[in-house]
Amino acid sequence: MSHLLEAIGLEKTFRSHGREVHAVADVSLRLSAGEALGIVGESGCGKTTTARMLLRLEEVSAGTILFENDDITHLRGAALRQFRARAQLVFQNPFDALNPRFSIRRSLTEPLRNFGVPRAEHTDRIHDALARVRLTPPAAWLDRHPHELSGGQLQRVVLARALLPGPRLIVADEPVSMLDVSVRAGILNLLREARDTLGLGAIYISHDLALIRYVCERTIVMYLGRIVEEGPTAELIAAPAHPYTRALVAAVPVAHVDQDRSALPIRGNLSDAPRTGAGCAFQDRCLHAMARCSDETPALRMISPGRKVACHLDGVPS
Fold first, then answer.
1. What's the pTM value of the predicted model, to 2 decimals?
2. Which one of 98, 139, 147, 257 has the largest count of C-beta atoms within 10 Å of its C-beta?
3. Fold for domain 5-309?
């Protein structure tokens, strides 16, 4: 089966103050056209770095990226520009994503010029994109500037701009975290509708499990640059297998007076955990750590159809 996007053994190492920081280690994933994949974890777990590598905004230290069966790992020049027309990013902060001096018309025209779309097509494409994100009539928005729009309206413009080149892949990094709760559902519904209508592959980067559950069929959980669990979203949230995933699910607030108020099944903070060394990266925060966890890095193994986990714990199915 061919996939829209496939990453094999991705790694990313940064140098900071004379030492190496392994931000991503041995990450492999697949995405089909029309599918939505969530990548979750605490801040600093490597999810955004992974997304940036997939979009070729960050150089890969090791590994391979295939897009529509083509190796894009080391694309340069015109070939890289062509790929970027097919893979677009929806930014987290719509207030910073648009040039405040540009009108909406200019902000939307710029990517069409950059990707060589004939000028005669600009108006129709822009009107279609604005109509798709429910900014109608389109002509009423073109001469406005970002400061004249609300956060929700700005994020609709950002989404319209991402759709303009006709991409096959959309990556959304915390796409509603900067917006009021009252407008988040509308933006998420637009993303789902665009994916379903246009047959796009979508990757959502978030720490919000409620968002991921709403929009993603499959989810990957990352910790310190590694995948620790993956599987169908509903199954993963209902019955998390890895101790870290269990902690993430337990941390989600429940709107009920009798909600469980017991301590979370995790200790310490992400900043306390080392990024290098033998064994499981989660061992210093895991309540179930044992001797084997210090000596052997757990492999990501299949525990049921579509479910994988990287853990030595006996209670995890094998």
1. 0.91
2. 98
3. Rossmann fold (3.40.50)
